[in-house]
Amino acid sequence: AQSVTQPDIHITVSEGASLELRCNYSYGATPYLFWYVQSPGQGLQLLLKYFSGDTLVQGIKGFEAEFKRSQSSFNLRKPSVHWSDAAEYFCAVGASNTGNQFYFGTGTSLTVIP
Amino acid sequence: DSGVTQTPKHLITATGQRVTLRCSPRSGDLSVYWYQQSLDQGLQFLIQYYNGEERAKGNILERFSAQQFPDLHSELNLSSLELGDSALYFCASSVDVSTDTQYFGPGTRLTVL
Q: Whole-angstrom Cα distance, residue A26 to residue A5?
């Protein structure tokens, strides 16, 4: 069965520091992977997605993610975090064999300290 | 702004009542998805419609139902409401059903008292 694991429930980083949010997935076929961000009281905004091709994908707001098939991972990175990046981050896998149903991880809450 | 609209933004009701949440997908999107987000369950897929037809079902209770109309907007009906139904309900849309990016609306926050 498809599943997504985000091992870190909460992460705190200093402004200007680098960031890596972990995501591991379980899926029998080629996964379609996404990162979304949710600010308090807001909907989910797409940061980036991986369908195929280059395993390093660039997204909005300076984020990038790398797909590693051997590790079943799709970690999100940002070289220098800004205070406005404080939010909840969700990794998701799309399951093409079930009509594009998305499976979400439990989310990682990011706090940015000055 | 994703282009997906949801109404109402907030809804407060009592146990045992019935409510209807509405979603308008992005222009051109044929597929609509409903999700429930609660503190204890996280983001759970409820149901998907494509061009008016039910396409996939997730963890949707029998008390809940949905439909997609010819103009492609969708409604999620929640009945015999319980305290545990209090959650944020999101609608998302995509162009089609095959591994397409889903764009999320701002959500409807339902509070059951």
A: 8
